[in-house]
Amino acid sequence: MSFATLTDIVTMLFCTAVLVQSVRLIRALRAVKGADFGAMVKALDAATAEAREVLDDLRETLRVDCAANARVIANGTAMREELTVMAGIADAVAERIVEAVEKSKTIPTRAADRTTEPKAKAKPRPRATAEAAA
Q1: Model confidence pLDDT, tens digit, residues 96-127
Q2: Gap between the Cα atoms of 58 and 50, Å rounded
Q3: Quick one: the chain helix, strand, coil %, rounded to 5?
Q4: Cα–Cα distances in Å, from 40 out to 22, 35, 50, 116, 133?
Q5: pTM of this prediction?
Q6: How far apart are CA 95 and CA 89, in angstroms?
Q7: What is the 8-class DSSP label of residue 39?
Q8: How far is CA 109 from CA 35, 113, 120, in A?
């Protein structure tokens, strides 16, 4: 037996296997097709149409909601920046207050260390009346 004869036999076996498989596939398709094949196709078409409507509604909803969310995020970002500035100002004011308190604590102790006579109280100035101004 030559190589050509051997390849012809293998090819015939493959062709036979393909024929057997195609017969099995045809039987399976006929079983699936059945009597309700038309109704099944109509149901699939209706389901596809409903799915398209739902997807269109979802796209519209997402378009509107995404735009609204983008506006909210932009407002939130602006507020965050303003609050950051306000917090910086508040920190600076707090540091100044702490420094002022520390300075006010050191001044009386220095004054207590000195032995000087207390100053006389200043006399209140008389207020100008409306008649004197006119």
Answers
A1: 999 999 888 887 555 555 555 556 565 666 66
A2: 12
A3: 85, 0, 15
A4: 24, 10, 15, 110, 104
A5: 0.36
A6: 10
A7: H
A8: 107, 6, 20
Extract the tokens encoding 31: 């079983």
Q: Give the C-alpha separation, 108 to 114, whole Å.
A: 10
Q: How far is C-alpha 89 from the geometric centre of its chain's CA atoms?
A: 29
Q: Tokens 């293998």, residue?
A: 10
Q: Which residue has the tokens 């296997």?
A: 17
Q: What is the pLDDT of residues 12-42, one digit of tens each?
A: 999 999 999 999 999 988 887 777 778 888 9
Q: Which two tokens stand for residue 84?
A: 């950051």
Task: List b or e across 97-129, with b for residues whose CB sees 16 or more CB atoms inside 10 angstroms.
Answer: eeeeeeeeeeeeeeeeeeeeeeeeeeeeeeeee
Give the integer Cα–Cα distance in Å for 29 and 43. 18
- Which pLDDT does position 13 carry in this prediction? 96
Query: CA 3: distance to chain centroid?
Result: 69
Altogether, the residues listed in the chain come to a count of: 134
